[in-house]
Inverse folding.
């Protein structure tokens, strides 16, 4: 299990999108070495393909910790 802490004031509200029944926020987790607070992940707001192509930097909006002893793995290519 991974627990997240999100700084809601850092969320770019222009990047939220409305679905049929709700408004959504896409997030991406990136593994990181344990920082001084024991975090194993950084949380970034997800970018669109066009934003990535334009060189937009994804804002870091929080951190995550592994709970239960599992180690972080990327599970694939990092896209940001």
């Amino acid at each position: 299990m991974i627990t997240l802490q999100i700084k809601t004031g850092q969320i770019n509200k222009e990047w939220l999108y409305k679905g049929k029944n709700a408004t959504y926020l896409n997030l991406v987790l990136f593994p990181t070495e344990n920082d001084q607070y024991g975090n194993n992940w950084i949380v970034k707001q997800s970018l669109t393909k066009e934003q990535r192509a334009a060189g937009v930097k994804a804002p870091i909006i929080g951190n995550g910790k592994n709970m239960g002893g599992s180690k972080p793995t990327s599970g694939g290519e990092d896209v940001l």
